[in-house]
Design a protein that fits this description.
This protein is of the alpha+beta class and 616 residues long. Helix content is 31%, strand content 24%. Strand 7 and strand 8 form a beta hairpin.
Length: 616
Amino acid sequence: MHAYRDFTCADLNLSNKGQNVRLAGWVHRVRDHGGVLFIDLRDHYGMTQLICDPDSAAFADVEKVRSEWCIRIDGEVKARDESLINPKLPTGEIEVFIRDIEVLGAAAELPLMVFGDQEYPEETRLRYRYLDLRREKMQDNMVLRSDVVASIRKRMWDQGFKEFQTPIITASSPEGARDFLVPSRLHPGKFYALPQAPQQFKQLLMVSGFDKYFQIAPCFRDEDPRADRSPTDFYQLDLEMSFVTQQDVFDTIQPVIGGIFEEFGKGRKVDQTWEQISYKDAALWYGSDKPDLRNPIKMQVVSEHFAGSGFAIFAKLLEQEGTEVRAIPAPTGGSRKFCDRMNAFAQKEGLPGMGYIFWRKESPDSIAQARGITVKEVNALIKAGEITLGEEAAGPLAKNIGPERTEAIRQQLGLGVGDAAFFLGGKPKAFEGVAGRARNVIGEELGLTDKDRFAFAWIVDFPIYEADEETGKIDFEHNPFSMPQGGMEALEGDPLKVLGYQYDLACNGYELVSGAIRNHKPEIMFKAFEIAGYGKEEVEKRFGGMVNAFQYGAPPHGGCAAGIDRIVMLLADEANIREVILFPMNQRAEDLMMNAPSDPTSDQLMELGLRVIPQD
């Protein structure tokens, strides 16, 4: 026999009946049935039921074991009674009668239970992550992650990509977040940076002639944490290609990402057609550049119906330049109760509220009031067939703007009896985010969002520049290394109209992929940075390696990066990215298990020529 095990805890079945076997694993659960002990023994592969009674020489030792002790047992495989078969387990038809036991590792009192579905505070789970990872759901998530990465690699290799590893210790590169800096011992006062992404290196690989590159790349960004973002590091499928257009990149990555979701999506529908939506339209229709297309709601501009209307708030607002009113249609949301609930949502978001109109069947009361007759007379006319109950608009907004305007809004939005619409106004950038979140809540609450689907869309035509509202200063709004659409000629006009060959892939409300066709021509790059206030010397100083390389026959190239953690999070149906990362940081970017970040020793600081200035 092997020193520890001859089988895993998922291997044994009726074909092993009567066989003496050796197993090893963790005590998942102990049950005492009137002096007969049952142990569920667990390892990475599965579970096997063990049994021991006083007839066994090992009984006294078996009585001592507790949950999560690591043990090795020898025993005989027996068939379970037919009434005790567990069809949910591959080993459910057998049990192993214990003849001998060895404790490989006893466990102290547990800070969290591995057995069961108890919820524990995040602090406890992360401090004792090695125990948390023993839980079935966490084991499944990490295996899923490993399988997804393996499948991605195979799919990339099958498309002719070569995998290369780029440096981890490097120079700072602007990727929209703070760097993690690494002090240099050999060059006191100077710092390396951990790469926010392999951006410059993968572009240099194209200049080097490698044509198709990829890697599963670790990236490091000092960011504020969110449920879908790690505050320190993450992994991405990083790829770059030469001699390609934007559409070539889409055609390359779609079968990889789509195939992963089909392979690991557990039967959920995966959209085959990936719509291309401009950044401008995504902001208008969905209030987000990462829209959840499982929700069919599209917002619309309805400013014309409020301009000069009796609703003074919107009417006066529309007199200001750059303002508009947008409507969020809410099919089946036509009740005062639901409208009040959404109004409360807006107030939680920091707004005074959200205007709304809902449509209902006309009542005899409202007809009587409009015609100046009694309800009794109206009912008589209805009975005689001279009046047919139609639909009416309700809510404070409807009363203020009148029936003609409300009917025009209803017609534009394609709504009817039982539906509603919500309204937000102002400068779009100020309310788009709230409008987008409101759209998501409406879709969820009204059951409009298709939960059994992965819906993808490419967001394209990102603006390269934006202007500071107060100073008017032009700066980059998105990736400064993107090729402007129209090249140098585009940069001669209004910077705020310049669009880049930049794109994101959205899925179910998350950004999964981001990329661009790169600006590979030095003269266009210098001009692009000049518009944002960066002189040629500064560009050469900060990006000298790449700028110099582009002077020696740089090919047109482009690529993208897909977030591994976020992909697995969606496939595992988790709401928090920490559920699919082995050893994540907490919300304050602390590793509670390893006690990081930690204080450096005085010797370490002296070697690096650094000193820590205490914070007041």
